[in-house]
Automatic annotation (TrEMBL):
Residues 97-126 form the Zinc knuckle CX2CX4HX4C domain. The lineage of its organism: Eukaryota, Viridiplantae, Streptophyta, Embryophyta, Tracheophyta. Pfam families: zf-CCHC_4. PANTHER family: DUF4283 DOMAIN PROTEIN, GLYCINE-RICH CELL WALL STRUCTURAL PROTEIN 1.8-LIKE. This is Zinc knuckle CX2CX4HX4C domain-containing protein.
Amino acid sequence: MLWFFNNHLLLLQKLEIGEDSLQLSLHHVLFLVQIHDLPLGIMSETMTTRIKGFLGEFLDYDTRVPSIGIQRFIRVRVRIDVWLPFKQKKKVLLGEKMYYARFQYEKLNLFYFICGKLRHGESFCPVRVRVDPT
């Protein structure tokens, strides 16, 4: 479950008995990620296995069928290291055709798209400073 305060993601971890809170590594979070822009015929478990290691540690995928209409994306649950840039798309080659799978992170409110990281705002982004020195 994701927790937010003032639209900022909070990283929480249950402390076990005898565990030192200063030794916890708060770098990972579980996300539901929607994979968009793929042909309907290939939105399956097979496709999730091709993409799973790219996003982070693959846990499972949503097999539910929508009750109304057609679902045009695959939903996967992944464990992501928040210190690394979040992936936005991946090239997928199917036979002679190339597609770009686009990723949408559910419940991710604040996210800086230039560098793909969560740890800072727009005014403190080192990539932005290198691109636009004003």
